[in-house]
Amino acid sequence: MFQSKIAGIGHYVPKNVYTNNDLTRFMDTTDEWIQERTGIKERRYADRLEETTTSMAIEAAKIAIERAKTTAKDIDFIIFATLSPDYYFPGCGVLLQREMGMGEIGALDIRNQCSGFVYALSIADQFIKTGMYKNILVVGSEKHSFALDFSTRGRAVSVIFGDGAGAAVLQPTTETGKGILSTHLHSDGADAEKLAMYYPGASGGKGLENRPEWPDQELGGMFVTPKMLEDGSAFPYMDGQAVFKKAVVKFPEVIGEALAKNELTPADIDLLVPHQANLRISQFVQKTLGLADDKVFNNIQKYGNTTAASVPIALSEAWEEGRIKEGDLVCLAAFGAGFTWGSALIRW
Ligand code: UT7
Question: Is the CB of 194 under 6 A from ligand 1?
Answer without folding.
Answer: no
